[in-house]
Amino acid sequence: HYARASIGVTRFTQAGSHALLALVREGELDVALVATGDHLGALVQTELGREPLVVLLPPGHPLAGRTSLGWRDLADEEFIDFHPTWALRPLNDAAFAAAGVRRRVRLSVNDVHTLLELVDRGLGIAVVPRHVGAKPQARHLVRVPLPERGAPEWVVSVVAAAWDRTTSPAPHLLELLADAPACHSADRGGVAVGQA
Questions:
Q1: d(CA 144, CA 63)
Q2: pLDDT digits (tens, 9 = 90+) for 142-175
Q3: CA-to-CA separations, 8 to 45, 47, 157, in angstroms, rounded
């Protein structure tokens, strides 16, 4: 598939999902990998995968021995989360609000590895997509699932504006992504994109 995979990339931008959506709307990007379905408007969305959220705890944390956690169990904790322009932050904020649990975000970051390092140093806990907790950098952390009922899922999609099929590489990229093994897995949980 190498011949099909040679799509000309003239710009690569790493940012939060909301910032990427704005760039697609403004015509600065043809496509973006995002982790939000909010505020899409006329943008075309193709879901690539979804997975549950987990709680990451430093070893020795009082909740680290639990096999599952409810939202209320997390009420008095200090959190490390992403900046609000990253899709996970509003997803987490909405999940806690829906459960009637107020949380305190102690530190906001713009990088997955920084989040993992801060949790590992005991500066707070985090609620992240399952694949983040499976990263090698998280090997010392404790992963505890959240209750399935009422727990949001982290959904990764590719979004694009309307394009000219003769000049834009977007349709070709969408075809490649549609053929990706992660898009055909039974639970569609194989996508591990951390840049949206």
A1: 9
A2: 999 987 776 788 888 888 876 665 666 666 666 7
A3: 21, 23, 21
Residue type at 134 in one-letter notation:
A
DSSP string, the chain: -HHHH-PPP-------HHHHHHHHHTTS-SEEEES--TT-TT-EEEEEEEEEEEEEE-TT-TTTT-S---GGGGTT-EEEEE-TTSTHHHHHHHHHHHTT---EEEEEES-HHHHHHHHHTTS-BEEEEHHHHTSGGGTTSEEEEPPSTT--EEEEEEEE----TTT-SHHHHHHHHHTSGGGGSSSS--------
